[in-house]
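The following record pairs a protein chain with its ligand, N-acetylmannosamine-6-phosphate.
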Amino acid sequence: MTAQDLADTLRGRLIVSCQAPPGDPMRETATLVRLALAAVAGGGSAIRANEPEVVAAISEAVDLPVIGLWKDGDTGVYITPTVRHALAIVEAGAAVVAADATDRPRPDGSTFEELVTAVHAAGALVMADVSTLAEGVAAAAQGADFVSTTLSGYVPGTPQRTGPDLDLVTSLSGSVSVPVVAEGRINTPEEAAEALARGAHSVVVGTAITAPTALTSRFVAGLARP
Ligand SMILES: CC(=O)N[C@H](C=O)[C@@H](O)[C@H](O)[C@H](O)COP(=O)(O)O
């Protein structure tokens, strides 16, 4: 699939992230496949998924593009940190590899541009997960096919919010020519629509759709407030 074909497929559409953190009862491949099938039934247009085994199983079960990543660790560069991780995700069947494109050092000493070159050579596309405007501009210049706001709020120095970083959506949309994906803490359909109004090409929603443990905790915390 070319970047243009995928951009056409995803314009104005919802991408559902079907992931579960380590230790979560939902972290089981068959369960995550069921979540992906529910996302299809509900009208989602693509699935974002973590780890080769899960990416392979969802790619097999679902007739939608899969944006794959491989999280390794939870500090520093942990979303598809190396070229090896990226190529394993292509091998698993992902149409797109999502990878950290922040300006932090990567554990294998590679550059983001090298990862892009390797993924393109293997026949897949790249979504750059960024935390700032400068990172998004750099990632697009290095060949990323999509730029996503995934990491805003998760890198020291970026704004901490309970909702999405819509200002980053706006600034990226005005600055890069590749499609901008709004991702991270989009909690309501209204926020998703606002992201599109701010120039996002597509919207990724994870927790608000596919994470019952986190959602339960939010309600429990709400009840505990005085
Ligand atoms: C920062 C990071 O590691 N983000 C990850 C990226 O794949 C996932 O844990 C998020 O669930 C995903 O970005 C969707 O965001 P939200 O669950 O907030 O809708």
